[in-house]
Amino acid sequence: GLPYSMKQAGFPLGVLLLFGVAYITDYSIILLIKGGNLSSTSTYQELVRKTYGLTGYLILSTLQFLYPFIAMISYNIITGDTLTKVFQRIPGVGPDNILGDRHFIILFTTIIFTLPISLYRDIAKLGKVSLISLILTIVILVIVMVRTVTFSPQVPKSENSWIFAKSSAVQAIGVMSFAFICHHNSFLIYGSLEEPTLKNWSRITHVSVSLAVIISVAFATCGYMTFAEYTEGDIFENYCRDDNFATFGRFCYGVTVILTFPLECFVTREVIGNVFFHGNLSTIFHIFVTVIIVVVATAISLVYDCLGIVLELNGVLSATPLVFIIPTACYLRLSEERWSHSDNILSCLLLAVGVLVMTVGLVLTIWHPQECSHGKEMFYCVPSNVSFHNSTLPP
């Protein structure tokens, strides 16, 4: 969704916002653990409950459940979009074949892969899975970069493609927040460290976010430079179906989201366990809750398939408060530093920005939803259409 966020914000402003969201992510993740240390708590929910009582705890629990749950829906949408096109490159497999049916692909990958992996109880077991996802992400980035050089000339551009800023920039921040957020599982990962200290956590956070922003800027830039104003919410919807190089990218992309899905399921299950089972799920309830979460997420993804709007809504409704608002609000309540201290000033600023982005972004997403052309072959994939379109573009 990052190239799509460039389309929303305007390319130059989009790149600047991407760096800004990365910095805020880095800062607020560390601030979150600082708050945990100040309050002697070991989970996000405990931190908010100790700081803002039951009301804050329930609000956070709702957001902490919604973000990964909606992310799971988006991952299923991506799986259905990408792997159907991969299988259609197999001789004899067409759109009418069962392997070309997104509903079948989503159900198949859920039953065979995502549900069994989601049933693990120990998040540390997903370490190797996460490494595979990271490697595949690099492969996908290389494919997108190569296609920027080889395919971009085939896609017509206009002067409006490069304007500095657009009115939907706030919605773009929501998509970027969706891409960077990891606050909902930060305490889980912090607790899995061999030496869970603030120094180690800060170092890991700086390295992780730095790597993430480098990959994200490269991906967003190359994706948008290739497709400009035609960029879809799912970048692989933009490539032609007969593009074998992009098809390999789709395959890597599909595998990546399948392997990422269980991590989000861990978080949703933990939230339910903490709220309804006092943090202790028996084996039977562990299996039951996991199956219910996966089944409901899968059912929604089977009936709704517009990724861009899903990313926007999850960004402004869940990611923005989890990144901007709650960590800073907790730290401000717990901090013993004077108000003129830099951490307090920056926290106040981020809190105000978060409220603004969440409010304006939600209004714009509802009033001006982005168009979704899911599953359609793009016009520039037909040479005659490209020639005609080029002839009608202003000089």
TrEMBL record:
Question: GO CC terms for this protein?
Answer: membrane
Subcellular compartments: Membrane
The keyword Disulfide bond is assigned to this record? no
Where would I find the Amino acid transporter transmembrane domain in this sequence? Answer: 1-366
Q: Which domain of life is it from?
A: Eukaryota
Tell me the keywords, alphabetical order: Amino-acid transport, Membrane, Transmembrane, Transmembrane helix, Transport
Topology relative to the lipid bilayer, per the entry, is: Multi-pass membrane protein
Q: What is its main location?
A: membrane
* GO molecular function terms attached to this record: L-amino acid transmembrane transporter activity
> Which spans are transmembrane here?
12-33, 54-78, 98-117, 129-149, 169-193, 205-227, 247-267, 279-304, 316-334, 346-367
State the protein's purpose: Putative sodium-dependent amino acid/proton antiporter.
Q: Which family does it belong to?
A: Belongs to the amino acid/polyamine transporter 2 family.
- This protein is called Putative sodium-coupled neutral amino acid transporter 11
Tell me the organism: Crypturellus undulatus
Which gene produces this protein? Avt2
